[in-house]
């Protein structure tokens, strides 16, 4: 496998020094920034995540700050999710779509106050879309990327570790809510969230220079909890059905195809870009949709979209796959046509290393 | 150095099979796609580029197609360069800026007809900005990413190689013009352009499946010309003063700071987003600007912005650097404050491996 070439364009994060010291072995690039993908190896990382606690450099979840009198209006233009009930202190998972209902990103919105939000983004320059809409509609908002860098604490011992740094109050933070906590005199937004199913938190580290002090404090506090540097784990996230923008969904897909219809209140999300297209989709239902799929055999790395076949005919696309030690099968995510999306349906997957047998599963492995 | 993790999100190109067969040793990620950075090693690649001919997978230069009655109006909104004189058959280097004059991308626009353009982009999701502006202004245009993938032929023997595949007519294509040439029954746009100073062409390969046939045909035709797989070469592009978006310029910079003021006809580019801000900049002139800089010593890789100091005070930022065998010095690109940008000014560069002496150069190494 080829190495990744150093350049400023592929940005380092506030935690890169810690990540390197911890012996990172693989990276990907995400929002023009380095995202670790493996430390020991993907299987050891997986077992450790499920049993202990890991500190993840997810600074690649760049923030878009939207601020000003029209902030609320702009936010509702960006997503088909109804934001009327959203309160400061809450985080919402908000699919964002273009005028045809095609997915542009699937960020988490953080409401800081009535006129101020952060959008914590997946891998696309959503900032350009938000700025374009704000400019085109002459909205009274500032749209910018603040100096804020998420650090995730994930795993069953995450809460115990966080209590040591931020106090017992951290236990009261509910899922997809956040609280404000102090670190050495700086107030930080800390949410109960993260890109795993093992529980944990995301610290919105406010200021690049605060990165390594927090990183070091977490490792110092968690030694007896067996804390380690980690990263989103391919196996665990597929088991848990956590979709990845750019992998399992792209601008070609509607939220409904991605199984995100429950986040689309298209009837009431008045003003949302793409509403006309999504009202139509909601009426008919999608023709293809994301499904958990198990695959038999010794798979190559899923580094490209694989065709899903049935009786020699293409019926879908498979976009993420990994061997699961806990479930003793290859776990996978694919978009399957309605003719073949029922649980138990047998499929064939065409890879760069030949054909593999697969079966549609009734649910993800959680 | 860590390896790059495989995933569909980091897209393969139509030429990836050829790149792998040629023994690529390093990649970067650019527009969510793999871009080779080294084959033999960066110095051998450099000498070969300057003496022979290379075939470059630059499919990462994604295209944005803008088509429809308002295409011309939209294009002029996107750039401060005056496009009134642009004719079909021409390519224009067009800095694109936001409402404050901050660089969003520095693409090449290809005018296919009066109502149809391709924008061949650097590393940012410019598509999102173009779509946002088109939507906000309700313009009558289609904006999309077509199935088009540039392949560059660069080096002093590039023309000789191209003639063998496309005929003598290729010699008549002038710099930043294109012609239409046939490959096995498909009409292709071929421009005299490319991200090196060694001369050459870019083939806009129209259709993913055409990628490897063209790749293979070029290698078959050029064996005695010593044709090799190559890629934009860090040393050669710094010597030639070819800026890299994300490295040497970002959204923080105006075109004038990047030395691209000559492409800004802000007085006449009526309707351009950011015009107010750039008129102001043009009046005052920029306070800092890109400069060629030579550096003495054994530099570490320039994987982050380095501070440029004079008498202990920050006077700029250095963003690209490499050892040049031909000029026997480290060649570099930095943005320097006007107080210190005169040729001959002595500077100090603060890197992760300590301080290095540097001097502002009168011109790039070409």
Structure notes:
The structure is a homodimer of 366-residue chains. The first copy, chain A, folds into 3 domains: 16-58 and 152-170 and 195-237, Probable tRNA modification gtpase trme, domain 1 (Gyrase A, domain 2); 63-144, 2-Layer Sandwich (Alpha-Beta Plaits), CATH 3.30.70; 287-366, Elongation Factor Tu (Ef-tu), domain 3. Chain A is globular. Helices cover 19% and strands 33% of the residues of chain A. With 366 residues, chain A is of the alpha+beta class. Chain A is built from 8 helices and 22 strands. In chain A, strand 9 (108-113) and strand 10 form a beta hairpin. A 6-stranded mixed β-sheet of chain A has the order 13-14-15-12-4-16, with helices on both faces. The first copy, chain A, has a 6-stranded antiparallel beta barrel with strand order 17-20-19-18-21-22. In chain A, strands 6-9-10-5-11 form a 5-stranded antiparallel β-sheet, covered by helices on one side. Chains A and B meet through strand 1, strand 2, strand 3 and helix 4 of A and strand 1, strand 2, strand 3 and helix 4 of B.
